[in-house]
Design brief:
Blueprint lengths: L4 H11 L24 E5 L2 E4 L4 E4 L14 H11 L10 H13 L5 E5 L2 H16 L3 E5 L12 E2 L9 E2 L6 H4 L2 E4 L4 H10 L4 E6 L15 H11 L3 E5 L12 H4 L6 E5 L9 E5 L1 H4 L18 H14 L4 H22 L5 E5 L2 E5 L8 H5 L3 H14 L1 E2 L8 E2 L6 H18 L1
Parallel strand pairs: 3-15, 5-8, 5-9, 9-10, 10-11
Antiparallel strand pairs: 1-2, 2-3, 4-12, 6-7, 11-12, 13-14, 14-16
The protein binds pyridoxal-5'-phosphate (PLP) and 5-azanyl-4-oxidanylidene-pentanoic acid.
């Protein structure tokens, strides 16, 4: 069993200087019993090495951006090369044009693109653009989906589909929440009801086309098509938050995989090859609402920085190789089949949602198709599972709502080793 003495020591030092000891609340272990977050020393391929010298098979994958494994040689080389040529210009560079063209080739619906620095910024801006384009203010989003931490998306559902939201974070004014309606995912009746109630006020419907934020949850057949139909009939735009999904399940977005096209798309995570990035894009006519062509303002000192552009191009160059997604799918299938067999063998109440190389384990009897289902799963069982894994060398996110992400660097031996560790956890800790 691993010891985490150095992590524990660093926790104390960290908590005295970094707020809460973490630079993002999702990194704290509050939801899994409150232990000291493991402090990582380095990451390479499919592995993490912590400050106590322990080695982990990594399925956190930095919450999604890492799809080629850590320190991938091609991305590493691109970053090193670019750093010698300057990492921030504050001017246009050929790299950003090349990268935008590369993204557009993979996601042709993005007729115009802008780079920003995070998924939060990307989503925040698509909302502004939808509002500018439609001259309306209200946004509909889906319960349990996460769209970053801008005010508008830190709003929880009201008590019914016709209810306005309530702030989900201190510091978000009620006036902001008044413009957000939250309805259950996969529930067209609730969406329709919101449009009936707030007719002519809705600027856009914001959706994760395949949910990644209350586990992996796919839309029911026809759901996204209907979202488009209802929104467009009512003069509203459809915004896909593809911050997790783009380049995760195939080379392109969920919009290509599912063959449904939104009006605007927000990107992040994978497209930066591990460096900070976001991007948004959509139909030319709509995107032309943005400065310098249009009246909606969006800007950024770091936007399109050459380092992220070089890393992003290199990452897509890896992903566009033949067989990458088939390989992720195969490994995903092998791992999930193995997990399901162990769940059955040890009589664990759990079920798994998988899409290609991403999946989530829900500790509960029922299949999860919307947020309440995920919320009702057993958090204590998840905490036991998580703590069992990190003691034995498998790293996942410390939350029952997060997914496991397989990378091109994981080997079949890693999958087998992971299954052995999971078996040990089920046998001894449950
Ligand atoms: C779907 C989705 N949108 C937006 C974001 C926010 O991205 P970032 O953390 O880069 O600001 C996330 C982050 O997890 C996400 O999962
Ligand atoms: N699925 C949610 C995240 O990935 C959030 C990561 C973070 O904000 O640290």
């Amino acid at each position: 069993m691993f010891k985490h003495e150095n992590s524990e020591k660093l926790r104390q030092r960290s908590e005295n200087i970094i707020l809460g000891g973490v630079n993002s609340p999702s990194r704290s272990y509050k939801a899994v019993g409150g232990g000291a977050p493991i402090v990582m020393d380095r990451a390479e391929g499919a592995y993490f090495y912590d400050v106590d010298g322990n080695k982990y098979i990594d399925f956190l994958s930095a919450y999604g951006p890492i799809i080629t494994g850590h320190a991938h040689p091609h991305i590493h080389e691109a970053i090193v090369k670019q750093s010698a040529r300057g990492i921030l210009y504050g001017t246009t560079s050929p790299l950003e044009i090349e990268f935008a063209e590369k993204i557009q080739k993979a996601m042709p619906n993005l007729e115009r693109i802008r780079f920003v620095n995070s998924g939060t910024e990307a989503v925040m801006t698509t909302i502004r653009v939808a509002r500018a384009y439609t001259s309306r203010n209200k946004i509909i989003k889906f319960e349990g989906c996460y769209h970053g931490h801008s005010d508008l998306v830190l709003v929880a559902a009201g008590s019914g589909p016709s209810q306005l939201g309530t702030p989900d974070s201190a510091g978000v004014p009620q006036a902001v929440a008044d413009d957000v309606i939250t309805v259950p995912f996969n529930n067209l009746e609730a969406l329709q009801a919101a449009f009936v109630h707030f007719k002519d006020e809705i600027a856009g419907v914001l959706v994760e086309p395949i949910v990644g934020n209350f586990g992996i949850v796919e839309p029911h057949a026809g759901f996204l098509e209907k979202v488009n139909e209802i929104a467009h009939t009512n003069g509203a735009l459809v915004i896909y938050d593809e911050v997790i999904t783009a380049f995760r399940f195939m080379y392109g977005g969920a919009q290509d995989l599912l063959n449904v096209q939104p009006d605007l798309t927000a990107l992040g995570k994978i497209i930066g090859g591990g460096t900070p990035i976001g991007a948004y894009g959509g139909k030319k006519e709509i995107m032309e609402s943005v400065a310098p062509l249009g009246p909606a303002y969006q800007a950024g000192t770091m936007a399109g920085n050459p380092l992220s552009m070089a890393a992003g191009i290199a990452c897509l160059e890896v992903l566009e190789q033949d067989g990458v997604y088939e390989d992720l799918d195969k490994k995903g299938e092998m791992l999930v089949d193995g997990l399901n067999a162990l769940i059955e063998k040890y009589g664990i109440k759990a079920n798994i949602n998988r899409k290609i190389g991403a999946f989530s384990i829900f500790f509960g009897e029922d299949e999860v198709t919307e947020y309440t289902g995920a919320e009702n799963t057993d958090g204590e069982a998840f905490a036991t599972f998580f703590n069992g894994l990190i003691k034995r060398g498998v790293m996942i996110a410390p939350s029952k709502y997060e997914a496991w992400f397989i990378t091109t660097a994981h080997t079949y031996e890693d999958i087998e080793a992971t299954l052995k560790i999971v078996e040990d956890v089920f046998k001894n800790d449950f």
